[in-house]
């Protein structure tokens, strides 16, 4: 299936964000996808190893929406509040409450959103996939206080650190060029509100991850400079899922579906889903 042949329909979750659905012809399941900070849902069609077309071939209908501050959704560019993203994701799940079997997939901050959603409710969820999730619970008290203070004072302003360049996202040259040339991606530095809300949600979740019992597939790269695989190890050790799989991709960077082992990552996801759809 060529990604140019894959067309989405508009999907309204009722909160004002831009939603999409890609229908599989031989639907076996549905999947709710949440992208990461600065990304957008449609990029999972023509980039991210074209995972949406591959999911459609597997018989999985994909629902997704752009976070506020990303893609075609409202709010200032890049200004994504994770707590608001969690609320939007809950609305999306509520809109899908009568559809099953349902799987969840989240990348980066989207992985944190999915994990938070599982804590809130695991009803009607057959399993969840987390790619390079952004768990920031290890930030010390001084760092938390500074970020929290600036988030209140100047929430829209950006952290005074160098922006994450595309070569830190992937080591694959052709994909670095695609990322650099994509006008829909947010290439600015992370705003204080995004950093603060990520830390807050991560800290609030830490003692509650043991409530998660849903099947999990978690994949993280050892060379990820945007989200630490050590934090993800903390997460996987705390959850009580009997069916949990954790893959560390050696030398993998942050966008694993665009990285040098992108086919291995994609096949791991598709095989994991296929086995649970037998």
Could you name the key traits of this structure?
single chain, 278 residues, alpha/beta, 8-stranded mixed beta sheet, 8 strands, 16% strand, globular
Question: How are the secondary structure elements laid out?
Answer:
Blueprint (H helix, E strand, L loop, with lengths): L8 E3 L7 E4 L6 E6 L8 H4 L4 H8 L1 E6 L16 H14 L6 E6 L1 H12 L4 E7 L9 H13 L12 H4 L3 H8 L11 H14 L10 E6 L7 H10 L5 E6 L12 H14 L3
Parallel strand pairs: 3-4, 3-5, 5-6, 6-7, 7-8
Antiparallel strand pairs: 1-2, 2-4
Helix pairs in contact: 3-4, 4-8, 5-8
Characterization of the model:
The chain is globular and about 40 Å long. Helices cover about 35% and strands about 15% of the residues. The longest helix has 14 residues, at about 80-95. The model has no long low-confidence stretch (mean pLDDT about 90). It has an 8-stranded mixed beta sheet, sandwiched between helices. It starts with 8 loop residues before the first strand and ends with a helix. The chain has about 280 residues and is of the alpha/beta class. Helix 4 links the parallel strand 5 and strand 6.
Tally of DSSP β-strands: 8
Q: What is the CA-atom radius of gyration, in angstroms?
A: 17 Å
Strand order of the largest sheet: 1-2-4-3-5-6-7-8
Proportion in β-strands = 15-25%
What is the CA–CA distance across the termini?
Answer: 22 Å
Largest sheet geometry: 8 strands, mixed
Tell me the helix content: 25-40%
What integer is the average pLDDT?
88
* Number of helices, counting only DSSP H or I runs of 4 residues or more: 10
> Which residues sit in consecutive blocks of at least 5 with pLDDT less than 50?
none
Q: SSE string, helix = H, strand = E?
A: EEEHHEHEHEHHHHEHEH
Decide which structural class fits the backbone: alpha/beta
Shape: globular
